[in-house]
Amino acid sequence: MMTTLEERCPACFANLDGTLLNCEKCGPVSKLEKKVQRNHLPLRTVIENKYVIGKVLGQGGFGITYAAWDINNQIIVALKEYFPMDISSRNDKHEVSIRKEHVEVYEYGLNRFLDEAKALATFNRNPGIVAVYDYFFSNHTAYMAMQYLEGKTWLDLLKERKKMPVEEAMAILLPVLDTLRAVHEVGMLHRDISPDNIVILPNRQVKLIDFGAARYAMKQKQQPFSIVFKQGYTPEEQYRGKGKIGPWTDLYALAATFYRAITGKIPVDAMNRLEKDTLLPPSKLGVVIGKNMESALMRCLEVRGENRYQSVSEWKKALLIPDVQQNNTNEIHINKLPTWGWLIIMITVIIFLKIIL
């Protein structure tokens, strides 16, 4: 028998207990509404007769992501709402309100948000990118309905264990590199890679989430928004309004994420490395890592973009170069002896045989 919406938790949409008053995951239903913040949509708000709003999954300076129930398909989705916190508010009808002086920049960011949704929807067959099912205007803003992921972020894993062996971290890094290469090939950038934007599913599949197109677009408009950079992960060119960004920008952030995973330490912030670079190689922190891999990693963490690898393919190739095994200097390699060496050996053998015979 199909469960009705009234029998599901208004926050996570799991089945309620027999009394319909308690959710095993979220607790008493009566207390859930009290947890909703002022700018969030209330639980069970219906958007365009298609989506029922649940709990907030995440919130940043430019958007709010909710768990939502897809009425038509009867599944849980992640519904991302464009909501730049510094210039937005919500009226009694749940519509987003913007002061007149901010309308132009708001609409500019809104259009970039939708452009990103359209672009990401073309990657729905790429296993490394969260699928986009739908995007639309409503409540004077825009929404993006995406695949609901049940997994842990790389940051979650690192909170549990602090750091991980290089081999295990590489098993996460390599799929992200393949995903990022596909994104870069169509001229897109992520712009916000960090451990909390990489999700590992229970089947070990790795997903890249939360692209930062709208956030970057607003910054380019040079408006006084409270844009919070992720210290240690953000390259120096993103701090500057006219910094030249490209694939090397994403590579820095991903390299910083990998560095954090294997060392247990967030890299020294790029802006603090401009005058004197104090970032230590992982081997200096006790990490067992090949010389070639470490060299490739540190090059991607160069402060200046022009000194880094310029493409995913370049960096991946460098990371996978095996270290040359050093030969024992005391070992004699007969196959490398010169001709005169062979003659000496033969003469010595002949003389020795004559003596004993």
UniProtKB/TrEMBL annotation:
The keyword ATP-binding applies. Keywords: ATP-binding, Kinase, Membrane, Nucleotide-binding, Transferase, Transmembrane, Transmembrane helix. Pfam families: Pkinase. ATP binds at K80. The keyword Flavoprotein does not apply. The chain crosses the membrane at residues 339-356. One of its GO terms (molecular function) is ATP binding. Residues 51-320 form the Protein kinase domain. InterPro entries: Kinase-like_dom_sf, Prot_kinase_dom, Protein_kinase_ATP_BS, Tyr_kinase_AS. This is Protein kinase domain-containing protein. It comes from Lottiidibacillus patelloidae.
